[in-house]
């Protein structure tokens, strides 16, 4: 066993990685979440509450907005998850009417995070209300009114459908391509095809095309089921959703191609695409554990997974209903990754031929 | 003398410091059955890959079926057939589907394909197995079918890489009958093998040791030259000199 490095690595490496990952990186606790504040009142009371927010470790105030209409555009940028709005006369109302309202708006396209953040925010405000009680014997009341943007019902399906979509497309496309090409290598039919007059690049393309169509059928079925049975909306452009999904499938297929160039047996191909991808894709795509809470190193790591970008895209289009101007970055990254995978695959493929 | 269809001149392939094929020079004529022998790791496969246009030589020249291995590989590929030591048909396709697939790849039209298919099926006696999956055929039949498919498009040369590995002596004999038939039709046979009785069937035999061709002649002359009783002796005498260990 000492000579079998791979087994050793799995036996002793895996527990270490898992305990570190689940212990440190993957927590549902949310720290340093970016929020925006829209303070129409600008009085002592609102300022004191804002101070409480910035003193609390859970929140970082990213900016103060002048207008609540800007809230949605900060949500669209993706990193802001919560907005706190103080109406005009907040302090006045509190002093003279003994009650005032604060509005908390959360980006509920990720319902878990939205729930947790809203609870944190409400707690901060309630704490402040309590300190007011201590000083005066008057029954001050600060009401919080929370709004769940994009997903008012906090439906779980809205979170997991895009996740499952990513997972299935990624795994099927990558595994199918790598296995089907490696199988030809293993059986010796690849060699026969290569000595034939068929253009090798055309050969690879024709091996991949059926899987593009299969994956598209899969994708269509998932979308149809999600919309009809689970009530997940497609708020954005259906055409854009399909277009970029084709792009993502091609990204996954080229990753499969790359794997098929590296491994020699079907077993290896399955192992790499199933275990080597399943775990990172589930953990680092963001649909189970929020990426924002991971240590920096892991956040950077998550960037190299195409699935993360596709997941952001799907949520933006399906749930938030954004248009192409908000997702061009994801499209660009996926295109770049596809080109990179194809470039390396063809280069390796050519080297093998020489 | 027939037309020369394989002509190599100081053909060499290096991988870094390692010279897999070292200055080999030989000619093979049309209709000839040319045995390409050598121990494992002697460089046979690398040499063969260069001749098939799969691998670019480091130096030297080779003309295959009238085309240059450096820049006319597409033409070479159209004019050769190839069958490897690994079984090389699609196991999950039927006999007919395999024939049609490879016929199509080599550009046979439907009419040619139909004629060829019937001819081939009859020759191999596979009438009852036309629509059976190749996976269900015995190994010997598969090898015969693979060979017939490799020469379906009437190539000038067919390269056989240990075609009879793992096949029983009777089937091997039948297989060689197919090879002779093909040679009689004018197809040149370039065959590697580890069976020395098969070497005796060849018109001429070359023996590679450490990337070089150490001997090349008819089996009869080789035996005289090394005053050996059989090709086995000739091979052992040469192969023992090898410095390289096998792969």
Describe the model.
The complex is a heterodimer of chains A (354) and B (247). Chain A is an alpha/beta fold and 354 residues long. Chain A folds into two domains: 33-149, abc type-2 transporter like domain (abc type-2 transporter like fold), CATH 3.40.1710; 157-353, no CATH class. Chain A contains 13 helices and five strands. Chain A has helices at residues 5-25, 44-55, 70-77, 90-96, 111-135, 157-187, 189-195, 200-228, 238-262, 266-284, 296-302, 306-319, 324-353, and strands at residues 33-39, 59-65, 80-86, 99-107, 141-149. Chain A has a five-stranded mixed β-sheet with strand order 2-1-3-4-5, sandwiched between helices. The longest helix of chain A has 31 residues, at 157-187. Chain A starts with a helix and ends with a helix. The mean pLDDT of chain A is 86. Chain B has a single domain (31-44, 76-239), classed as 3-Layer(aba) Sandwich (Rossmann fold). In chain B, the strands form two sheets. Chain B has a six-stranded mixed β-sheet with strand order 6-7-8-3-9-10, sandwiched between helices. A four-stranded antiparallel β-sheet of chain B has the order 2-1-4-5, covered by helices on one side. In chain B, strand 1 and strand 2 (18-29) form a beta hairpin. The chains are: A alpha/beta (354), B alpha/beta (247). The interface between A and B is medium-sized, with 13 and 24 residues.
Please work out how many helical segments of chain B DSSP would assign.
9
- Most extensive interface, chain pair and sizes: A-B, 13 and 24 residues
Distance between the termini of chain B: 38 Å
Shape of chain A: elongated
Strand content bin of chain A: 5-15%
**Main β-sheet description of chain A:** 5 strands, mixed
Contiguous uncertain segments of 5+ residues of chain B: none
- Category by helix and strand content of chain B: alpha/beta
Shape, principal axes of CA atoms of chain B: globular
How many domains make up the coordinates of chain A?
Answer: 2
Oligomer state equals heterodimer
Cα distance spanning the termini of chain A: 36 Å
- SSE order of chain B: EEEHEEHEHHHEHEHEEHH
- What is the arithmetic mean of pLDDT of chain A? 86
Main-sheet strand order of chain B equals 6-7-8-3-9-10
Strand content of chain B: 25-35%
Give the strand order of the largest sheet of chain A, numbering strands 1, 2, ... along the chain. Answer: 2-1-3-4-5
Number of strands of chain B: 10
Q: Please, what is the CATH homologous superfamily of chain B?
A: P-loop containing nucleotide triphosphate hydrolases
């Amino acid at each position: 066993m000492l000579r079998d490095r791979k087994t050793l690595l799995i036996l002793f490496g895996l527990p270490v990685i898992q305990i570190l990952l689940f212990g440190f990186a993957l927590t549902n606790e949310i720290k340093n979440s970016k929020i925006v504040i829209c303070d129409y009142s600008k009085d002592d009371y609102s300022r004191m509450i804002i101070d409480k927010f910035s003193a609390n470790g859970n929140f970082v105030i990213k900016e103060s907005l002048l207008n609540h209409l800007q809230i949605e555009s900060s949500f669209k940028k993706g990193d802001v998850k919560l907005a706190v709005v103080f109406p005009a006369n907040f302090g006045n109302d509190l002093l003279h009417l003994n009650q005032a309202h604060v509005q908390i708006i959360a980006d509920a396209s990720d319902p878990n995070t939205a729930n947790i953040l809203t609870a944190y925010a409400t707690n901060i405000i309630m704490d402040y209300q309590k300190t007011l009680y201590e000083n005066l014997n008057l029954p001050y009341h600060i009401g919080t009114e929370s709004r769940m943007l994009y997903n008012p019902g906090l439906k779980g399906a809205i979170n997991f459908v895009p996740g499952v979509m990513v997972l299935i497309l990624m795994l099927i496309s990558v595994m199918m391509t790598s296995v089907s090409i490696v199988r030809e290598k293993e059986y010796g039919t690849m060699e026969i095809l290569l000595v034939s007059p068929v253009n090798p690049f055309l050969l690879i393309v024709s091996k991949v095309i059926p899987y593009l169509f299969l994956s598209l059928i899969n994708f269509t079925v998932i979308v149809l089921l999600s919309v009809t049975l689970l009530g997940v909306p497609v708020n954005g452009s259906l055409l854009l959703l399909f277009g970029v999904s084709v792009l993502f499938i091609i990204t996954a297929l080229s990753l499969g191609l790359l794997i098929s160039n590296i491994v020699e047996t079907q077993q290896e191909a399955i192992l790499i695409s199933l275990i080597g991808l399943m775990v990172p894709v589930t953990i680092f795509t963001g649909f189970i554990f929020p990426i924002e809470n991971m240590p920096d190193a892991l956040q950077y790591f998550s960037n190299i997974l195409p699935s993360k970008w596709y997941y952001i895209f799907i949520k933006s289009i399906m749930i938030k209903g954004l248009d192409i101007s908000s997702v061009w970055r994801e499209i660009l990254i996926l295109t770049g990754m596809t080109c990179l995978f194809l470039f390396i695959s063809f280069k390796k493929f050519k080297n093998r031929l020489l | 003398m027939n037309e020369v269809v394989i002509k190599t001149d100081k053909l060499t392939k290096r991988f870094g410091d390692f010279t897999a094929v070292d200055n080999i020079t030989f000619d093979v004529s049309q209709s000839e059955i040319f045995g390409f022998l050598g121990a494992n790791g002697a460089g046979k496969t690398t040499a063969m890959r260069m001749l098939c246009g799969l691998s670019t030589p480091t130096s030297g020249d080779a003309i295959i079926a009238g085309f240059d291995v450096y820049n006319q590989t597409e033409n070479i590929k159209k004019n050769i057939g190839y069958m490897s030591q690994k079984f090389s048909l699609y196991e999950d396709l039927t006999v007919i589907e395999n024939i049609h697939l490879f016929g199509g790849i080599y550009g046979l039209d439907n009419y040619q394909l139909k004629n060829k298919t019937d001819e081939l099926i009859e020759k191999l006696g596979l009438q009852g197995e036309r629509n059976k999956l190749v996976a269900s055929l015995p190994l010997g039949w598969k090898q015969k079918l693979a060979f017939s498919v490799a020469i379906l498009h009437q190539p000038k040369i067919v390269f056989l890489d240990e075609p009879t590995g793992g096949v029983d002596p009777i089937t091997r004999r039948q297989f060689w009958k197919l090879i002779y038939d093909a040679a009689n039709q004018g197809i040149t046979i370039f065959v590697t093998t580890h069976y020395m009785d098969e070497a005796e069937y060849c018109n001429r035999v070359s023996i590679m040791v450490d990337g070089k061709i150490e001997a090349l002649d008819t089996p009869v002359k080789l035996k005289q030259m090394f005053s050996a009783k059989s090709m086995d002796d000739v091979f052992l005498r040469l192969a023992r000199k090898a410095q390289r260990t096998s792969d």
